[in-house]
Input
Amino acid sequence: MKKRVVVTGLGAITPIGNGVDAFWKSVKEEKIGFDFIKAFDTTDYKCKVAAEVKDFNPEDYMDKKTARRMEAFCQYAVAAAKEAIEDAKIDMEKEDPYRVGCAIGSGTGSLQANEREHSRLIEKGPSKVGPLFVPLMISNMAAGNVSIAFGLKGKSLNVVTACATGTNSIGEAFRTIQYGDADIMVAGGTEACVTPLGIAGFSSLTALSASEDPERCSIPFDKDRNGFVMGEGSGVVILEELEHAKARGAKIYAEVLGYGCSSDAFHITSPAEDGMGAATAMLNALKDGNVAKEDLTYINAHGTSTHHNDLFETRAIKIAFGDHAKDIKINSTKSMVGHLLGAAGAVEFVACVKEIENGFIHRTVGLKECEEEMDLNYCMQSYEEDVPYALSNSLGFGGHNASLLLGKYTD
Output
């Protein structure tokens, strides 16, 4: 028998608020996190707008020396993990540390460290490259630093599946608990790619929006969408085996019911045009959770605001759900926070948990008009209604498709 897995803690660092309460308040107020890039001079760049984290002070979450030994993506992860662990009221002195694990991924690691140390190499020679360059840069250090900070000695994972990283990380943590390899998993994603190389690289790929209007840059499912907007931050959740959570009197936000994956095996950046890969991931998650597709009424879409993603994800939803697709409410949290790459699925998972908890489905902010083939309900308005299930989708470069199915917890 697979064990039941519940969500008992939430943490978030986002472009619209640091901390889950601030993030959720902004979601309900339809606040957007887009503005002209402050991190560097964008004079020579096609893309000038991003969704940067604001007013983040790492020393609010760790001491100064520890902060200096982490790049931003790790700082965000530790901060979000601290909030999630405190929210779940986990006392590590009362836990077997080898039964508490960590699965926090990053799609890129630290581009800042790469840029900085490459400049030193070229300008001053190899002997001047920093001795901590590698441990500051590599993407597994988010999971490593979180484990070190909180004494998590169980399974430690760094799943890297590009924009599906956060969703896969939570999914693999879910599986870990289901099959008895841990009692608690600290899981999620983190990213900090608003850097010269990050913006230039995605711009050259023609993936980023060139809009200079913060109100009309990240507009998923809109006929005028023209690329995604880079976001940054971290989402971390506490997943826990049900009986373990009940035994310690934990608050249970929701239950993780299913996890589905597939590969498009099609193209290094474009989703499969027929949508079959993403459709399969969604159906696999529903099958895993033993939930009929007719019972699903809400999807938090990958919804990047690129032409191909939003169109092909729409096709995938139609393939998976048939006529029922028109009865499903579909929104994109990226309409407010942008695309957080490896952190996207984790922050969107947090949004789904809050939507289930509050009976509220947020609007896809900025969406005004869709094109002909995109004829589903993409939430041009918010809804106050019961949310028994939520399906969260993530689609990553390389053809990675991942879906997580959450539901209201019932004893």
Observations:
- The mean pLDDT is 98.
- The first helix runs from residue 20 to 28.
- The radius of gyration is 20 Å.
